[in-house]
Amino acid sequence: MNLLLAYLLLAAGETSFLAPAEGDDPLAATLAKLRQAAGKSVVAIEVERDSDPDGITGSGAVAQHRDYYNRPKGPTSGVVYEAGGFILTSRFNVSGGIRKNGLKVTLWDGRQVAGELLGTDEQRDIALVKIAETELPVLPRADYAKLRPGTLVALLGRSPDPGQATVNLGILSAMNRMNRMSVQTDAEMNYGNAGGPLVTLSGELIGVACNIKPEAVWGQSGGVGFACKTAEIDGLLERLKKGERIEAPKQPYLGIRPGEGNPDVEGIQIADVMKDSPAEKAGIKKEDVLVELAGVMLTDFESLKEALESHKIGDEVILKVMRKAKDGWQEKSFTLKLEGKAEQ
Amino acid sequence: MTLALALSLFLAQDAEKIQDLQAKLHAVVEKVSPAYVFFGNGSGVCISPDGYALTNFHVSGDRQGQRVRMPGGRQFLADIVGFDPLGDISLCKLRDAKDLPFCELGDSDALEMGQHVIAVGNPFLLGNGSWEPTITFGIVSALHRYMDNPGYFDAIQTDAQINPGNSGGPLITMDGKVVGINGRIDIRRFMNRVNTGIGYAIPSRQIQRYMEAFKRGGRVFEGFIEGIEIGECGDARYDNVGEYGDGVFVARVDAGLPGGKAGFEPGDIIFEVEGYRISNANRFHGVVSNWPEGATVRLKVRRKAEEKELKVFLGDPAKILERKRAMDATDLGFTVNAKMVVGPVAPGSAGAKADLKPGDVLMRVDGRRVGSWTEFRACLRPGAEMTLTVARDGKDLELPLKVPRPKTDE
Domain range holding A299? Predict the structure, then answer.
């Protein structure tokens, strides 16, 4: 929705109310108003790092496309969560080895203050940062009973000029994603506005933009973005304030990406096998079709998830695949040792 | 003061417009989401209460009895009824379905650039488990986009974000009608199949024109005019072929084929097909392939100072019959002559497995008398075990025939 999306209204003050009238766009004035009001709760976060294992993708061909995959330089976004100096952002934004005094927060009025990283939650991809400020503007909360797919929303972030918030318009695409911890939106989300607030057009906080990182298959600005629900954040807030680093529970996984096509045998067609994954170690190849895991027939990706849930990390399972041979499909069996991976 | 008053009035008007858009969005999402189908690693949409559903051929393939789900997780087995691998559409039927939520097909010809649309899909399979589809919102970016392989010859371009997993899902107007089946995106990022604001959908009018052929079953072919060769108007290598944009000109006509029989003459400039203006060769191909093989279309040609209307059959009837026979033969491994006498039986074929022998006289299928090959074919249900009654050496024999599933390739 690019025509409506990504309003970056550069004019400030009253002119930004009037300018859109010429464009004859009913949304523009509302977005300008929203940006003025809600933009005050958006902060820019800058981090100086000694090391950054999360911000860089793996080796091989992907590594050659750093511009797209790797964490770029420059500020990311955060949102004032409590008036007493508590800033919420995406965990990815503050991951890596932060240098001493290397975390800076810029407020809407341009003042830059030192930030201290408190707690993080890996599974929800959120982090709490403390700054020595009081009476910061806090956004009102959205009433989830009124939200549903199709609700117009805006994602606010910080532009390279910290005084100016960016506004990306979209809708709620789905209400329950990431183990029901997040909502999904088609407002374009990227490294710059991740960590910023997803709000209703009245400026009420729905959640904090998260899960944009190099390994995310949905990439950036592809119309698939997530925001961790405020209720999820509230449930962890005390632990985050104590500085707890909460790790994601690990689940057994194979390390394959299913294809979109439909093979002539029932099963799960493999579009890709992840590097160093249990599937790769076992000898499974791209374009194989998974048909059975430990005696359970696989019909679709969902049946694979169900089959994996009944096993533990470290279990050895027999995996049957169909592999294309010269004269049709050939069944092959592999023994695979399940490894654990944190759920995204 | 005056300025402030004007401003607040303006904002109130805006608020109303936005509330209107919001109400429409909520209404359309509520209406169409229940008709969405989680189809394998892609998407589909239910278009009738008895379970006809559309998806992309690249999502469904031609395998019968695939497990599909509807929002909330209700499961069905889907059979592929008719399919068009080149145009990337499959019509499926959900088994034992009744009173399903469905979405009607709308009129893609009425679309205008800039109008709002939503896409329903399952990008990156995010909805698996919760069985909640993804809704994305955008506009119609362009119409009549032409691409081949697969043949999106008359595609709708949209910036409603569609991604891997959206394929086969519906593109929907704000009045809740399916105007396209999303199936293709442009990608500019290395090793990362993610939308860039350019998605393509197959238009509903094309699908409607194919619907009868899809419902008859099996593979459906794109319409094509046999027996004429065309060129781009304005081609400098020819005389008197108009200007680029006038249409396409007829370079050569084969009198024995439908193009010749329809009355085309070399030098004719085709400028309209079924009311659609033809500007160039891509658009000509795009419009003609909006109809399946076997359809008849009306065209307008300019011949010297005159305008003439011609009617032409798409495809070559002789070739269609020949191909049908060839497909039947590879399919079943045998055919019969006009007296219902079985010809050679291919080793290893369904016919051979049924122990059918050359010279057998085919009489009945599951007790029903059949008098012609066409009648016999019409009785067959793909995947079913059926009983053939044949006469051999003066005796009636009953042979079990396992009817093969339709094949993708000729």
Answer: 250-342
CATH number for position A278: 2.30.42.10
> How many helices (H) and strands (E) are present in chain A, helices listed first?
6, 21
The answer to whether B196 faces chain A, any CB pair under 8 Å, is: yes
Q: Residue A115 belongs to a domain with what CATH number? A: 2.40.10.120
**Among A232-241, B268-277, B350-359, B379-388, which is the least confidently predicted range?**
B379-388
Among residues A248, A265, A300, the one where a domain terminates is A248
Q: Which residues of A touch B26 (CB under 8 A)?
A: 148, 150-151
Q: Is B60 one of the catalytic residues?
A: no
Q: How many domains does chain A have?
A: 2
Q: Which of A170, A260, A266 sits opposite B63 (nearest CB)?
A: A266
Residues A130, A210, single domain; the answer is yes
Give the H or E element holding residue B307.
strand B306-313
ipTM, interface predicted TM-score of the complex? 0.83
Q: Which residue of B14, B42, B192 is in closest CB contact with A260?
A: B42
Domains (range + CATH), chain B: 32-218 (2.40.10.120), 228-315 (2.30.42.10), 321-402 (2.30.42.10)
CA-derived radius of gyration, chain A: 22
State the pTM of this model. Answer: 0.83
Rounded Cα distance between B264 and B268, Å, is 7
B164 contact partners, CB below 8 Å, separation of at least 6: A260, B123, B124, B193
Q: How far is B377 from chain A (nearest CA, A)?
A: 23
Residue B78 has which token pair? Answer: 């889907």
Q: Does B66 touch chain A (CB under 8 A)?
A: yes
Q: Name every chain B residue with its beta carbon within 8 A of the beta carbon of A61.
A: 190-191
Residue B376 has pLDDT above 60, yes or no: yes
Q: How far apart are CA B257 and CA B276, in angstroms?
A: 24
Query: What tokens appear for B177 in the block?
Result: 């009608």
Residue after which a domain boundary falls, among A194, A222, A248: A248
With beta carbons under 8 A apart, name residues in chain A contacting B63. Answer: 262-266
Q: Which residue has the tokens 């860039």?
A: B196
Region A246-253: mean pLDDT is 91
